Amino acid sequence: MNPSNFSVVPAAEGFEWLRSSIQIFRSQWLRYTSIAALFLLIMQVASAISGGLLFVFLKPVLSVGFLAAAWHHERGELPEAKHLFAGFKSNLKALLPLGGVYLLGVLIAATIGLAASGISVEDIVAADGQPKLDEMTQLRFMMVTLAFTLPVTAALWFAPALIVFADATFFQALATSCRACLSNWLAMSVYCVAIFLLLLVIAACVSPLLLIAKNVALMVMMVVAVPLTAVLMISDYVSYRRVFHRDESMGRTA
User: Fold this and answer.
1) Per-block average pLDDT, block size 10, for the chain (254 residues)?
2) Domain extents for the chain?
3) Closest CA to 251 of 27, 15, 6
4) What predicted TM-score, i.e. pTM, was given to this entire model?
5) DSSP structure class, residue 8
6) Max CA-CA distance within the chain?
7) Residue 79, Cβ neighbours under 10 Å: how many?
8) Which of 19, 23, 136, 149 has the CB geometry, 3.0–4.6 Å to 109, for a possible disulfide?
9) Is the CB of residue 199 less than 8 Å from the CB of residue 193?
């Protein structure tokens, strides 16, 4: 397959990505939940060990694990915990730098956000627990930073899948992922709206517990985060298949 070839899909595909991901998850919910729990545990330990630096570089490698699990599941096999480490057996040299791209991109976006807002890092640190920054300044910083983070997100969205499934090089994966996301910005936007609505539903279900028992509500949110992570990671595979292999039908995942 030429990794540069992709389809421009209808906007409604964004909802279909989430719907299919939930369907795939439900068919083997226990196995996917176990994989997600292991993923989150490793990420938590990595973050604690290195202050988040190891987390950044490990995430794209381990995210390949969900791609591998969904790929095997689509072909009639069972998703297993061992699939989580498939990235270490793939093109690791191309996967690891993806974390560096994300880190560099976020730092650049935050720097631009600070400059556009007329504030410094010291102002943000001092504002922790001490509201010295007005709400408009904080909002401007967040919006500018988010806007300049979007290109990085686009470049990384399909990059791991392209490296693993299409044998794309590091730079080829970034460029193709960015072009595919920009060409399918409508579907990507609808997908983000679908995720937002799903989070609203989850919040609406959990929020009454805050009035009864805050600790219980927090525990429920932590538990819900595990299957939610699985669904979101599976959606990476579904969106990749719909955009880069649109002419191929999705296999059975029962």
Assistant:
1) 82 96 96 95 89 86 93 94 91 91 91 84 61 73 89 94 92 95 96 95 82 75 91 96 84 56
2) 13-244
3) 27
4) 0.87
5) -
6) 57
7) 28
8) 149
9) no
